[in-house]
Amino acid sequence: MITGHETSFVTFKKLGRKTIEKTIGTNSDGLDKAGSYAIQESGDALVRCLEGDYDNVVGLPVRLLSKLFKEFISADRPFDNRP
Questions:
Q1: What residue segments make up the domains of the chain, in order of their start?
Q2: Largest alpha-carbon pair distance within the chain?
Q3: Chain-centre distance of CA 57, in angstroms?
Q4: CB atoms within 10 A of CB 42
């Protein structure tokens, strides 16, 4: 077994009432999102700064997953002993 994690930090802009109402009005999918927003849909309007992996914020840390797959595939162990 190989595990890993990715940490990202999102800083939001100071949002006024008009921006919030516009975002709510144009994004009916907000109820099925962590934090009620999707950075790929409304990030420019809401996000001031992103530190870390963008794909992680979207939902899947692709670079980390690729690294873990490579580690798993290259692990030097017999196939018959794998779980």
A1: 9-75
A2: 61
A3: 2
A4: 17
Identity of residue 43:
G
Q: What is the pLDDT of residue 21?
A: 80
Q: Which amino acid is located at 64 in the chain?
A: L
Check residue 28 and give its pLDDT: 56
Q: Note the residue count of the chain.
A: 83
Q: Give the residues across from 49 on adjacent strands.
A: 11
Task: For 2-61, write each residue's pLDDT tens digit.
Answer: 899 999 999 999 989 988 787 776 655 566 666 667 888 777 778 999 999 999 988 889
Tokens of 45: 């309007």
**Nearest residue to 14 (alpha-carbon basis) of 42, 47, 43:** 47
